[in-house]
């Protein structure tokens, strides 16, 4: 997906996760920061992934990574989320390619394709 063309992965000493939302009255409400395992941010079309050291082993990424990547990419289909999880744990890129080909996932996304998380991109 176009969202993943530029990804940087960082290994910080720790990760803090918090939430914030604005109520219908305009009041900002924040939760307290908690220890986390992964944080995704975007900056100038670059996806930045922060993973704590124990989660840098590709064989066992944290569940939060799959959750955050699926949200970031707008993936809601359970089968597609399962494929994303498979890709994250598989070290052999040839095997990933074979598995995706077997499921008829296209190799390339056409240049003029608009990828919008609010739109059903299930054919991708």
Q: Layout of helices and strands, plus pairs?
A:
Blueprint: E1 7-10, E2 15-17, E3 20-22, E4 28-30, E5 34-36, E6 38-43, E7 46-51, H1 63-73, H2 78-89, H3 93-102
Parallel strand pairs: 1-7
Antiparallel strand pairs: 2-5, 3-4, 6-7
Helix pairs in contact: 1-2
Could you list some keywords that capture this structure?
three-stranded mixed β-sheet, 124 residues, two-stranded antiparallel sheet, 7 strands, alpha+beta, 3 helices, disordered C terminus
Question: Can you describe this structure?
Answer:
With 124 residues, the protein is α+β, with helices and mostly antiparallel strands. It has one domain (2-102). Helix content is 27%, strand content 23%. The chain contains three helices and seven strands, in the order βββββββααα. The protein has helices at residues 63-73, 78-89, 93-102, and strands spanning 7-10, 15-17, 20-22, 28-30, 34-36, 38-43, 46-51. The strands form three sheets. It has a three-stranded mixed β-sheet, with helices on one face. A two-stranded antiparallel ribbon has the order 2-5. A two-stranded antiparallel ribbon has the order 3-4. A hairpin with a 5-residue loop joins strand 3 and strand 4 (28-30). Helix 1 crosses helix 2. The longest helix is centred in the last third of the chain and has 12 residues, at 78-89.
């Amino acid at each position: 997906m176009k969202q993943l063309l530029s990804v940087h992965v960082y290994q910080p000493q720790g990760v803090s996760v918090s939430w914030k939302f604005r109520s219908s009255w305009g009041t900002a409400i924040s939760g307290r920061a908690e220890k986390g395992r992964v944080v995704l941010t975007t900056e100038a079309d670059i996806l930045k992934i922060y993973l704590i050291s124990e989660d840098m082993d590709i064989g066992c990424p944290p569940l939060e990574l799959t959750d955050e990547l699926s949200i970031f990419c707008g993936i809601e289909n359970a089968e597609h989320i399962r494929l994303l999880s498979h890709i994250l744990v598989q070290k052999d890129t040839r095997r990933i390619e074979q598995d995706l080909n077997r499921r008829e996932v296209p190799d390339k996304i056409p240049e003029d394709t608009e990828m919008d998380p609010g739109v059903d991109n299930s054919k991708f």
